[in-house]
Design brief:
By secondary structure, the protein is mainly alpha-helical. It contains 4 helices and 2 strands. Strand 1 and strand 2 form a beta hairpin.
Length: 91
């Protein structure tokens, strides 16, 4: 999965490092497989094509915008949780 990155922050100063890479390899691969399946599902669809979702019509473009916003929001939540645990803040 990518090159190793040296640990930073409080956990590194305490001699600990995050080693979740091996433990979560199957989960990461599942996420990648789902991404590939989603890419394949929209191969022949234009960004402005629409689909009906119970009572409303959405373009593929708006679905992507929504998903990007959801990922950003949930990644922000994860960052807040991590910050509460280790106290390290980003700049």
């Amino acid at each position: 999965m990518g090159a190793g990155v040296p640990s930073v922050g409080r956990s590194a100063r305490r001699g600990r490092s995050w080693s979740g890479g091996r433990r979560h390899t199957a989960k990461v691969e599942r996420l990648r497989a789902e991404g590939r399946a989603a890419d394949e599902a929209v191969t022949d669809i234009d960004f402005d094509d629409t689909v009906e979702v119970p009572g409303e019509r959405f373009s593929l473009r708006m679905i992507y915008v929504h998903m990007i916003g959801e990922y950003a929001r949930h990644n922000g939540h994860a960052d807040l949780l991590r910050e509460a645990i280790d106290g390290v803040t980003g700049r």
